[in-house]
Specification:
Elements (H helix, E strand, L loop, with lengths): L1 E7 L2 E7 L5 H12 L7 E3 L21 E6 L20 H8 L13 H10 L3 H8 L8 H18 L7 H10 L17 H15 L12 H6 L2 H6 L1 E9 L8 E7 L2 E4 L7 H8 L1 E8 L4 E13 L3 E7 L1 E4 L4 E4 L9 E3 L6 H29 L6 H12 L23 H4 L7 E11 L7 E9 L2 E6 L2 E5 L1 H5 L9 E9 L15
Parallel strand pairs: 1-4, 7-10
Antiparallel strand pairs: 1-2, 3-4, 5-6, 5-9, 8-9, 10-18, 11-12, 13-14, 14-15, 14-18, 15-16, 16-17
Helix pairs in contact: 3-7, 5-6, 5-7, 11-12
Protein backbone atom coordinates (compact mmCIF):
# COMPACT_ATOMS: atom_id res chain seq x y z
CA UNK A 1 0.00 0.00 0.00
CA UNK A 2 1.09 3.57 -0.77
CA UNK A 3 -0.37 6.32 1.38
CA UNK A 4 -1.24 9.58 -0.41
CA UNK A 5 -2.74 12.85 0.76
CA UNK A 6 -5.84 14.06 -1.06
CA UNK A 7 -7.17 17.59 -0.69
CA UNK A 8 -10.77 18.29 -1.64
CA UNK A 9 -12.13 21.77 -0.99
CA UNK A 10 -11.21 22.42 2.66
CA UNK A 11 -10.97 18.74 3.56
CA UNK A 12 -7.84 16.58 3.61
CA UNK A 13 -7.76 12.79 3.49
CA UNK A 14 -5.09 10.13 3.83
CA UNK A 15 -5.85 7.35 1.36
CA UNK A 16 -4.12 4.00 0.88
CA UNK A 17 -3.50 3.16 -2.77
CA UNK A 18 -3.07 -0.47 -3.82
CA UNK A 19 -0.87 -0.40 -6.97
CA UNK A 20 -2.19 -3.83 -7.96
CA UNK A 21 -5.74 -2.46 -8.25
CA UNK A 22 -7.04 -0.30 -11.13
CA UNK A 23 -7.49 3.45 -10.88
CA UNK A 24 -11.25 2.88 -10.59
CA UNK A 25 -10.74 1.29 -7.15
CA UNK A 26 -8.89 4.39 -5.93
CA UNK A 27 -11.68 6.60 -7.26
CA UNK A 28 -14.18 4.38 -5.51
CA UNK A 29 -12.38 5.04 -2.21
CA UNK A 30 -12.60 8.78 -2.84
CA UNK A 31 -16.30 8.47 -3.60
CA UNK A 32 -16.91 6.78 -0.24
CA UNK A 33 -15.01 9.58 1.54
CA UNK A 34 -16.31 12.63 -0.32
CA UNK A 35 -19.48 11.47 -2.10
CA UNK A 36 -18.04 12.91 -5.32
CA UNK A 37 -19.24 10.48 -8.05
CA UNK A 38 -16.48 8.75 -9.97
CA UNK A 39 -17.61 10.30 -13.26
CA UNK A 40 -17.17 13.81 -11.76
CA UNK A 41 -13.76 13.26 -10.21
CA UNK A 42 -10.78 15.23 -11.55
CA UNK A 43 -7.62 14.11 -9.72
CA UNK A 44 -4.50 16.25 -10.23
CA UNK A 45 -0.96 15.89 -8.99
CA UNK A 46 0.41 13.10 -11.17
CA UNK A 47 2.57 13.68 -14.19
CA UNK A 48 0.53 14.01 -17.36
CA UNK A 49 -2.25 16.10 -15.85
CA UNK A 50 -5.63 14.70 -14.81
CA UNK A 51 -5.55 11.05 -13.71
CA UNK A 52 -7.15 8.94 -16.44
CA UNK A 53 -9.29 5.86 -15.83
CA UNK A 54 -7.06 3.64 -17.98
CA UNK A 55 -3.78 4.86 -16.44
CA UNK A 56 -1.37 2.29 -14.99
CA UNK A 57 0.11 2.93 -11.54
CA UNK A 58 3.52 1.70 -12.74
CA UNK A 59 3.59 4.53 -15.28
CA UNK A 60 2.79 7.22 -12.70
CA UNK A 61 4.98 8.93 -10.12
CA UNK A 62 3.14 7.26 -7.22
CA UNK A 63 5.16 7.79 -4.04
CA UNK A 64 4.52 7.63 -0.31
CA UNK A 65 3.03 10.86 1.02
CA UNK A 66 2.30 12.29 -2.42
CA UNK A 67 -0.05 15.30 -2.37
CA UNK A 68 -3.03 15.19 -4.73
CA UNK A 69 -5.98 17.47 -5.38
CA UNK A 70 -9.50 16.28 -6.07
CA UNK A 71 -11.92 18.49 -7.97
CA UNK A 72 -15.61 17.76 -8.34
CA UNK A 73 -18.90 18.42 -6.64
CA UNK A 74 -20.42 15.94 -4.22
CA UNK A 75 -23.86 14.43 -4.63
CA UNK A 76 -26.46 16.58 -2.93
CA UNK A 77 -30.14 15.96 -2.42
CA UNK A 78 -32.09 18.88 -3.80
CA UNK A 79 -34.76 20.35 -1.56
CA UNK A 80 -38.13 20.17 -3.34
CA UNK A 81 -39.70 23.49 -4.28
CA UNK A 82 -43.13 22.21 -3.31
CA UNK A 83 -44.32 19.81 -0.62
CA UNK A 84 -44.28 16.17 -1.72
CA UNK A 85 -47.72 14.85 -2.69
CA UNK A 86 -48.25 11.09 -2.94
CA UNK A 87 -50.26 9.57 -5.75
CA UNK A 88 -52.81 8.05 -3.38
CA UNK A 89 -53.50 11.51 -1.89
CA UNK A 90 -54.53 13.02 -5.23
CA UNK A 91 -58.14 13.27 -6.42
CA UNK A 92 -59.10 10.21 -8.51
CA UNK A 93 -59.19 12.21 -11.75
CA UNK A 94 -55.64 13.58 -11.32
CA UNK A 95 -54.28 10.22 -10.19
CA UNK A 96 -55.74 8.54 -13.27
CA UNK A 97 -54.22 11.21 -15.53
CA UNK A 98 -50.77 10.68 -14.04
CA UNK A 99 -51.04 6.91 -14.23
CA UNK A 100 -51.92 7.12 -17.91
CA UNK A 101 -48.52 8.65 -18.62
CA UNK A 102 -46.59 5.78 -17.06
CA UNK A 103 -45.62 2.59 -18.94
CA UNK A 104 -47.49 -0.62 -18.28
CA UNK A 105 -46.71 -2.90 -15.37
CA UNK A 106 -47.26 -6.67 -15.20
CA UNK A 107 -49.75 -8.51 -13.01
CA UNK A 108 -48.24 -10.94 -10.50
CA UNK A 109 -49.86 -14.31 -11.16
CA UNK A 110 -48.52 -15.97 -8.02
CA UNK A 111 -44.82 -15.55 -7.19
CA UNK A 112 -44.06 -14.40 -10.74
CA UNK A 113 -42.27 -11.18 -9.79
CA UNK A 114 -38.98 -12.81 -10.86
CA UNK A 115 -40.31 -13.11 -14.42
CA UNK A 116 -42.07 -9.73 -14.44
CA UNK A 117 -38.86 -7.95 -13.42
CA UNK A 118 -36.83 -9.87 -16.01
CA UNK A 119 -39.22 -8.96 -18.81
CA UNK A 120 -39.26 -5.27 -17.88
CA UNK A 121 -35.44 -5.20 -17.98
CA UNK A 122 -35.35 -6.93 -21.37
CA UNK A 123 -37.93 -4.46 -22.66
CA UNK A 124 -35.38 -1.67 -22.21
CA UNK A 125 -33.38 -3.17 -25.12
CA UNK A 126 -35.05 -1.67 -28.23
CA UNK A 127 -32.94 -3.79 -30.57
CA UNK A 128 -34.31 -6.96 -28.95
CA UNK A 129 -37.89 -5.71 -29.28
CA UNK A 130 -37.31 -4.95 -32.95
CA UNK A 131 -35.95 -8.44 -33.57
CA UNK A 132 -38.80 -10.15 -31.74
CA UNK A 133 -41.46 -8.04 -33.45
CA UNK A 134 -40.08 -8.94 -36.88
CA UNK A 135 -39.76 -12.65 -36.02
CA UNK A 136 -41.47 -15.10 -38.38
CA UNK A 137 -41.55 -18.71 -37.14
CA UNK A 138 -40.12 -21.38 -39.41
CA UNK A 139 -41.18 -24.31 -37.22
CA UNK A 140 -43.76 -25.05 -34.56
CA UNK A 141 -41.29 -25.85 -31.78
CA UNK A 142 -41.63 -24.93 -28.11
CA UNK A 143 -39.16 -22.11 -28.63
CA UNK A 144 -41.06 -20.69 -31.60
CA UNK A 145 -44.21 -20.66 -29.47
CA UNK A 146 -42.29 -18.74 -26.78
CA UNK A 147 -41.15 -16.19 -29.37
CA UNK A 148 -44.71 -15.76 -30.66
CA UNK A 149 -46.07 -15.21 -27.15
CA UNK A 150 -43.20 -12.78 -26.52
CA UNK A 151 -44.31 -10.83 -29.59
CA UNK A 152 -47.78 -10.37 -28.18
CA UNK A 153 -46.60 -9.53 -24.67
CA UNK A 154 -44.01 -6.93 -25.69
CA UNK A 155 -46.49 -5.40 -28.10
CA UNK A 156 -48.98 -4.97 -25.25
CA UNK A 157 -46.32 -3.52 -22.96
CA UNK A 158 -45.28 -1.03 -25.64
CA UNK A 159 -48.71 0.30 -26.52
CA UNK A 160 -50.66 0.13 -23.24
CA UNK A 161 -50.49 2.31 -20.13
CA UNK A 162 -52.30 -0.02 -17.79
CA UNK A 163 -51.21 -3.30 -16.17
CA UNK A 164 -50.84 -6.26 -18.53
CA UNK A 165 -51.71 -9.79 -17.41
CA UNK A 166 -49.13 -12.15 -18.99
CA UNK A 167 -51.17 -15.37 -18.69
CA UNK A 168 -50.43 -16.70 -22.20
CA UNK A 169 -46.74 -15.91 -21.99
CA UNK A 170 -46.42 -17.44 -18.50
CA UNK A 171 -48.08 -20.70 -19.58
CA UNK A 172 -45.84 -20.93 -22.64
CA UNK A 173 -42.76 -20.16 -20.55
CA UNK A 174 -43.59 -22.90 -18.04
CA UNK A 175 -44.23 -25.38 -20.86
CA UNK A 176 -40.76 -24.62 -22.25
CA UNK A 177 -39.12 -24.82 -18.84
CA UNK A 178 -41.12 -27.09 -16.50
CA UNK A 179 -38.89 -26.43 -13.49
CA UNK A 180 -40.48 -22.97 -13.22
CA UNK A 181 -43.78 -24.76 -12.53
CA UNK A 182 -42.56 -26.08 -9.18
CA UNK A 183 -45.17 -25.85 -6.41
CA UNK A 184 -45.05 -25.79 -2.64
CA UNK A 185 -46.69 -28.50 -0.46
CA UNK A 186 -49.66 -26.14 -0.22
CA UNK A 187 -50.08 -26.23 -4.00
CA UNK A 188 -48.82 -22.67 -4.64
CA UNK A 189 -46.29 -21.77 -7.32
CA UNK A 190 -42.88 -21.20 -5.76
CA UNK A 191 -40.57 -18.22 -6.10
CA UNK A 192 -37.84 -18.68 -8.72
CA UNK A 193 -34.47 -17.15 -9.54
CA UNK A 194 -34.63 -14.14 -11.90
CA UNK A 195 -31.13 -14.78 -13.25
CA UNK A 196 -32.09 -18.32 -14.24
CA UNK A 197 -35.21 -17.01 -15.99
CA UNK A 198 -33.09 -14.40 -17.81
CA UNK A 199 -30.64 -17.04 -19.04
CA UNK A 200 -33.35 -19.45 -20.18
CA UNK A 201 -35.19 -16.74 -22.10
CA UNK A 202 -32.11 -15.55 -23.98
CA UNK A 203 -31.02 -19.10 -24.78
CA UNK A 204 -34.50 -19.90 -26.11
CA UNK A 205 -34.46 -16.73 -28.22
CA UNK A 206 -31.02 -17.69 -29.55
CA UNK A 207 -32.44 -21.01 -30.83
CA UNK A 208 -35.00 -19.18 -32.97
CA UNK A 209 -32.93 -16.13 -33.98
CA UNK A 210 -29.83 -17.40 -35.81
CA UNK A 211 -27.74 -15.05 -37.89
CA UNK A 212 -28.22 -15.28 -41.64
CA UNK A 213 -24.57 -16.30 -41.94
CA UNK A 214 -25.01 -19.22 -39.50
CA UNK A 215 -24.82 -22.58 -41.23
CA UNK A 216 -26.91 -25.05 -39.30
CA UNK A 217 -27.44 -25.30 -35.55
CA UNK A 218 -24.69 -26.33 -33.17
CA UNK A 219 -25.73 -28.24 -30.08
CA UNK A 220 -23.10 -26.55 -27.92
CA UNK A 221 -24.88 -23.69 -26.15
CA UNK A 222 -21.92 -21.28 -26.37
CA UNK A 223 -21.68 -21.77 -30.14
CA UNK A 224 -25.46 -21.50 -30.44
CA UNK A 225 -25.42 -18.12 -28.69
CA UNK A 226 -22.41 -16.86 -30.65
CA UNK A 227 -24.10 -17.66 -33.97
CA UNK A 228 -27.35 -15.90 -33.07
CA UNK A 229 -28.72 -12.37 -32.89
CA UNK A 230 -28.77 -12.77 -29.10
CA UNK A 231 -25.03 -13.38 -29.19
CA UNK A 232 -24.53 -10.16 -31.12
CA UNK A 233 -26.48 -8.18 -28.54
CA UNK A 234 -25.46 -9.89 -25.30
CA UNK A 235 -22.70 -12.43 -26.07
CA UNK A 236 -19.34 -11.75 -24.38
CA UNK A 237 -16.57 -13.54 -26.25
CA UNK A 238 -13.80 -14.58 -23.90
CA UNK A 239 -10.56 -16.55 -23.84
CA UNK A 240 -10.06 -18.89 -20.88
CA UNK A 241 -6.51 -19.88 -19.94
CA UNK A 242 -5.92 -22.95 -17.75
CA UNK A 243 -2.63 -23.28 -15.84
CA UNK A 244 -1.90 -26.31 -13.67
CA UNK A 245 -0.93 -25.33 -10.12
CA UNK A 246 0.04 -28.89 -9.18
CA UNK A 247 2.39 -29.13 -12.16
CA UNK A 248 3.71 -25.71 -13.29
CA UNK A 249 5.70 -27.41 -16.04
CA UNK A 250 2.51 -28.43 -17.80
CA UNK A 251 1.82 -26.32 -20.89
CA UNK A 252 -1.16 -23.97 -20.29
CA UNK A 253 -4.20 -24.49 -22.50
CA UNK A 254 -6.77 -22.00 -23.78
CA UNK A 255 -10.41 -22.19 -24.77
CA UNK A 256 -12.79 -19.67 -26.33
CA UNK A 257 -16.30 -19.28 -24.96
CA UNK A 258 -19.31 -16.98 -25.35
CA UNK A 259 -20.93 -15.83 -22.10
CA UNK A 260 -24.28 -14.16 -21.50
CA UNK A 261 -23.17 -12.49 -18.27
CA UNK A 262 -20.24 -11.39 -16.17
CA UNK A 263 -20.22 -12.53 -12.55
CA UNK A 264 -19.42 -10.17 -9.68
CA UNK A 265 -18.11 -12.50 -6.97
CA UNK A 266 -18.68 -11.08 -3.49
CA UNK A 267 -16.35 -11.75 -0.57
CA UNK A 268 -15.62 -9.90 2.68
CA UNK A 269 -13.17 -7.76 0.69
CA UNK A 270 -15.51 -6.83 -2.17
CA UNK A 271 -16.81 -3.26 -1.99
CA UNK A 272 -16.95 -2.27 -5.66
CA UNK A 273 -18.33 -3.92 -8.78
CA UNK A 274 -15.01 -3.91 -10.63
CA UNK A 275 -13.30 -5.78 -7.76
CA UNK A 276 -15.97 -8.47 -7.92
CA UNK A 277 -15.69 -8.76 -11.70
CA UNK A 278 -11.95 -9.38 -11.42
CA UNK A 279 -12.59 -12.13 -8.88
CA UNK A 280 -15.22 -13.61 -11.17
CA UNK A 281 -12.72 -13.88 -14.04
CA UNK A 282 -10.03 -15.61 -11.98
CA UNK A 283 -10.74 -18.83 -10.12
CA UNK A 284 -9.33 -22.21 -9.18
CA UNK A 285 -10.95 -25.35 -10.55
CA UNK A 286 -10.30 -29.08 -10.45
CA UNK A 287 -9.99 -31.05 -13.67
CA UNK A 288 -8.14 -33.97 -15.17
CA UNK A 289 -4.45 -33.36 -15.83
CA UNK A 290 -2.99 -35.06 -18.94
CA UNK A 291 0.50 -34.96 -17.41
CA UNK A 292 -0.33 -36.11 -13.86
CA UNK A 293 -3.03 -38.58 -15.01
CA UNK A 294 -5.31 -37.50 -12.19
CA UNK A 295 -7.46 -34.59 -11.13
CA UNK A 296 -5.42 -31.48 -10.36
CA UNK A 297 -5.96 -27.86 -9.35
CA UNK A 298 -5.89 -25.36 -12.21
CA UNK A 299 -5.94 -21.58 -12.25
CA UNK A 300 -8.53 -20.40 -14.75
CA UNK A 301 -8.05 -16.84 -15.96
CA UNK A 302 -10.57 -15.30 -18.33
CA UNK A 303 -10.05 -12.28 -20.57
CA UNK A 304 -12.54 -10.61 -22.89
CA UNK A 305 -11.74 -10.76 -26.61
CA UNK A 306 -14.88 -9.00 -27.88
CA UNK A 307 -17.58 -6.97 -26.18
CA UNK A 308 -21.27 -6.92 -27.21
CA UNK A 309 -23.66 -3.99 -27.28
CA UNK A 310 -25.11 -4.91 -23.88
CA UNK A 311 -23.49 -6.39 -20.78
CA UNK A 312 -25.42 -8.14 -18.03
CA UNK A 313 -23.71 -8.38 -14.65
CA UNK A 314 -24.85 -10.81 -11.98
CA UNK A 315 -24.02 -10.00 -8.38
CA UNK A 316 -23.40 -13.47 -6.92
CA UNK A 317 -25.33 -12.88 -3.70
CA UNK A 318 -26.83 -16.32 -3.04
CA UNK A 319 -24.92 -19.26 -1.57
CA UNK A 320 -26.02 -22.65 -0.32
CA UNK A 321 -26.30 -22.97 3.45
CA UNK A 322 -26.19 -26.56 4.71
CA UNK A 323 -27.61 -25.68 8.12
CA UNK A 324 -30.91 -24.38 6.70
CA UNK A 325 -30.81 -26.19 3.33
CA UNK A 326 -31.53 -22.89 1.58
CA UNK A 327 -29.79 -20.35 -0.62
CA UNK A 328 -28.83 -17.59 1.80
CA UNK A 329 -28.18 -14.06 0.66
CA UNK A 330 -25.04 -11.94 0.97
CA UNK A 331 -26.26 -8.43 1.77
CA UNK A 332 -22.84 -6.76 1.75
CA UNK A 333 -22.72 -3.28 0.18
CA UNK A 334 -21.19 -3.42 -3.31
CA UNK A 335 -21.12 -0.08 -5.12
CA UNK A 336 -21.89 -0.22 -8.84
CA UNK A 337 -21.14 2.69 -11.23
CA UNK A 338 -23.43 4.44 -13.68
CA UNK A 339 -20.57 4.20 -16.21
CA UNK A 340 -18.69 0.88 -16.42
CA UNK A 341 -15.27 0.59 -18.09
CA UNK A 342 -14.21 -2.99 -18.96
CA UNK A 343 -10.98 -2.09 -20.77
CA UNK A 344 -8.73 -3.62 -18.10
CA UNK A 345 -10.48 -7.00 -18.40
CA UNK A 346 -9.76 -7.38 -22.13
CA UNK A 347 -7.03 -9.25 -23.99
CA UNK A 348 -3.98 -7.24 -25.11
CA UNK A 349 -5.06 -7.62 -28.74
CA UNK A 350 -8.55 -6.29 -28.03
CA UNK A 351 -7.13 -3.40 -26.03
CA UNK A 352 -5.15 -2.39 -29.11
CA UNK A 353 -8.38 -2.29 -31.11
CA UNK A 354 -10.16 -0.21 -28.48
CA UNK A 355 -7.35 2.22 -27.68
CA UNK A 356 -7.59 4.49 -30.77
CA UNK A 357 -11.29 5.14 -30.20
CA UNK A 358 -10.77 5.67 -26.48
CA UNK A 359 -8.07 8.19 -27.28
CA UNK A 360 -10.29 9.94 -29.82
CA UNK A 361 -13.15 10.17 -27.34
CA UNK A 362 -10.82 11.68 -24.73
CA UNK A 363 -9.40 14.17 -27.23
CA UNK A 364 -12.88 15.23 -28.33
CA UNK A 365 -13.90 15.73 -24.72
CA UNK A 366 -10.79 17.79 -23.89
CA UNK A 367 -11.19 19.92 -27.02
CA UNK A 368 -14.87 20.60 -26.36
CA UNK A 369 -14.10 21.40 -22.74
CA UNK A 370 -11.44 23.89 -23.76
CA UNK A 371 -13.83 25.57 -26.19
CA UNK A 372 -16.45 25.81 -23.48
CA UNK A 373 -13.97 27.36 -21.05
CA UNK A 374 -13.00 30.01 -23.55
CA UNK A 375 -16.63 30.90 -24.16
CA UNK A 376 -17.70 30.90 -20.53
CA UNK A 377 -14.47 32.37 -19.19
CA UNK A 378 -14.67 30.52 -15.89
CA UNK A 379 -16.07 27.64 -13.93
CA UNK A 380 -18.76 27.81 -11.30
CA UNK A 381 -20.68 25.42 -9.13
CA UNK A 382 -22.17 23.65 -12.14
CA UNK A 383 -18.90 23.24 -14.02
CA UNK A 384 -18.58 19.53 -13.20
CA UNK A 385 -22.07 18.82 -14.49
CA UNK A 386 -21.25 20.73 -17.69
CA UNK A 387 -18.08 18.72 -18.10
CA UNK A 388 -20.01 15.49 -17.71
CA UNK A 389 -22.46 16.60 -20.37
CA UNK A 390 -19.58 17.47 -22.69
CA UNK A 391 -17.92 14.11 -22.10
CA UNK A 392 -21.10 12.15 -22.74
CA UNK A 393 -21.61 14.06 -25.98
CA UNK A 394 -18.09 13.12 -27.05
CA UNK A 395 -18.84 9.45 -26.43
CA UNK A 396 -22.15 9.26 -28.20
CA UNK A 397 -24.67 11.67 -26.70
CA UNK A 398 -27.80 10.68 -24.80
CA UNK A 399 -28.36 7.03 -25.66
CA UNK A 400 -31.12 6.56 -23.10
CA UNK A 401 -34.14 7.51 -25.20
CA UNK A 402 -35.98 4.46 -26.58
CA UNK A 403 -35.86 3.95 -30.32
CA UNK A 404 -38.88 3.81 -32.59
CA UNK A 405 -39.03 0.06 -32.11
CA UNK A 406 -39.95 0.46 -28.44
CA UNK A 407 -42.65 3.09 -28.84
CA UNK A 408 -46.35 2.39 -28.64
CA UNK A 409 -47.14 1.05 -32.07
CA UNK A 410 -49.02 -1.92 -33.36
CA UNK A 411 -47.30 -1.90 -36.75
CA UNK A 412 -45.00 -4.74 -37.76
CA UNK A 413 -41.36 -3.77 -37.23
CA UNK A 414 -39.20 -3.31 -40.33
CA UNK A 415 -36.57 -5.84 -41.36
CA UNK A 416 -33.63 -6.02 -38.99
CA UNK A 417 -30.61 -4.00 -40.12
CA UNK A 418 -27.76 -5.98 -38.58
CA UNK A 419 -25.15 -3.28 -39.22
CA UNK A 420 -27.14 -0.85 -37.09
CA UNK A 421 -28.38 -3.21 -34.40
CA UNK A 422 -25.19 -5.14 -33.80
CA UNK A 423 -22.51 -2.47 -33.97
CA UNK A 424 -19.57 -3.58 -31.84
CA UNK A 425 -18.57 -1.74 -28.69
CA UNK A 426 -15.75 0.64 -29.65
CA UNK A 427 -14.37 1.90 -26.33
CA UNK A 428 -15.06 -0.71 -23.66
CA UNK A 429 -17.34 1.74 -21.85
CA UNK A 430 -20.98 1.21 -20.90
CA UNK A 431 -23.77 3.08 -19.13
CA UNK A 432 -26.24 1.60 -16.67
CA UNK A 433 -29.72 1.21 -18.18
CA UNK A 434 -31.54 -1.29 -15.94
CA UNK A 435 -31.24 -2.84 -12.49
CA UNK A 436 -33.06 -5.91 -11.20
CA UNK A 437 -33.22 -6.06 -7.40
CA UNK A 438 -34.14 -8.68 -4.83
CA UNK A 439 -35.60 -7.90 -1.43
CA UNK A 440 -35.44 -10.61 1.21
CA UNK A 441 -32.94 -12.98 2.78
CA UNK A 442 -33.43 -16.14 0.69
CA UNK A 443 -33.53 -16.95 -3.02
CA UNK A 444 -36.65 -19.10 -2.63
CA UNK A 445 -38.60 -16.17 -1.20
CA UNK A 446 -38.49 -12.38 -1.23
CA UNK A 447 -39.49 -10.04 -4.00
CA UNK A 448 -37.98 -8.97 -7.35
CA UNK A 449 -38.35 -5.48 -8.84
CA UNK A 450 -37.04 -3.86 -12.06
CA UNK A 451 -35.60 -0.33 -12.25
CA UNK A 452 -35.31 0.93 -15.84
CA UNK A 453 -33.70 4.15 -17.02
CA UNK A 454 -35.98 6.37 -19.08
CA UNK A 455 -33.78 9.45 -19.54
CA UNK A 456 -31.23 11.56 -17.68
CA UNK A 457 -31.89 11.26 -13.93
CA UNK A 458 -35.26 9.60 -14.59
CA UNK A 459 -35.98 5.96 -13.81
CA UNK A 460 -39.08 3.78 -13.72
CA UNK A 461 -39.56 1.29 -10.91
CA UNK A 462 -41.59 -1.72 -12.08
CA UNK A 463 -42.98 -3.41 -8.97
CA UNK A 464 -45.24 -5.90 -10.75
CA UNK A 465 -48.31 -3.88 -11.80
CA UNK A 466 -47.23 -0.72 -9.92
CA UNK A 467 -44.99 1.73 -11.83
CA UNK A 468 -43.42 4.80 -10.20
CA UNK A 469 -40.82 7.39 -11.15
CA UNK A 470 -37.43 7.66 -9.44
CA UNK A 471 -34.05 9.39 -9.78
CA UNK A 472 -30.37 8.48 -9.80
CA UNK A 473 -30.28 8.97 -6.03
CA UNK A 474 -32.78 6.13 -5.60
CA UNK A 475 -30.64 3.83 -7.75
CA UNK A 476 -27.59 4.52 -5.59
CA UNK A 477 -29.48 3.12 -2.60
CA UNK A 478 -29.67 -0.34 -4.24
CA UNK A 479 -26.06 -1.33 -3.46
CA UNK A 480 -26.96 -3.46 -0.42
CA UNK A 481 -26.37 -3.41 3.30
CA UNK A 482 -29.79 -4.33 4.71
CA UNK A 483 -33.27 -5.61 3.97
CA UNK A 484 -34.04 -3.00 1.31
CA UNK A 485 -33.98 -3.77 -2.42
CA UNK A 486 -30.45 -4.93 -3.40
CA UNK A 487 -29.01 -5.05 -6.91
CA UNK A 488 -28.91 -8.63 -8.20
CA UNK A 489 -28.63 -8.05 -11.96
CA UNK A 490 -27.36 -4.91 -13.68
CA UNK A 491 -27.76 -4.27 -17.41
CA UNK A 492 -25.28 -1.94 -19.10
CA UNK A 493 -25.64 -0.41 -22.57
CA UNK A 494 -22.74 0.56 -24.87
CA UNK A 495 -21.62 4.17 -24.77
CA UNK A 496 -21.30 4.68 -28.50
CA UNK A 497 -18.79 7.04 -30.06
CA UNK A 498 -20.22 10.18 -31.58
CA UNK A 499 -19.70 9.99 -35.38
CA UNK A 500 -17.15 12.42 -36.80
CA UNK A 501 -18.35 14.86 -39.43
CA UNK A 502 -14.91 15.66 -40.80
CA UNK A 503 -13.26 12.28 -40.73
CA UNK A 504 -14.12 8.66 -41.13
CA UNK A 505 -13.55 6.23 -38.28
CA UNK A 506 -11.29 3.43 -39.36
CA UNK A 507 -12.69 0.11 -38.23
CA UNK A 508 -10.19 -2.52 -37.22
CA UNK A 509 -11.30 -6.00 -37.94
Amino acid sequence: MVKVNVKWNKEKYEVDVDPSEPVSSFKGQLFSLTMVPIERQKIMGFKGGILKDDAQWKDLDLTEGKNLMLMGSAVELEKPDKPMVFLEDLPPSKAAALNSLLPAGLTNLGNTCYLNATLQCLKTVPELLSIIKSYKPKTNSRYSNLLKSSQGLFNDLSRLHEPVTPSVFLNTFRMCFPRFSEKSPEGLYMQQDAEEAWGELLTAYAHELPLDTANGTDSHSADLIKRSMIGKLFGIQVVEKFSCKDNPEEEPTTREETLLKLACNITVETSYLFDGLKKGLEEEISKASPTLHKDAIYTKKTLIKQLPKYIMVQFVRFHWKDATKTKSKIVRVVQFPFTLDLFELCTPEYKERLSPNRKRAEEEFNASLERKRKVIGGGGDDEDDKQQGEKKAAVGGDDNQPSQSSTSSTEVAPAVDEDVLFKENETGKYELCAVLTHQGRYAESGHYVAWVKKSENKWYKFDDRDVTEHTDEDIKKLSGGGDFHICYLALYRTLALKPKSSATITEQK
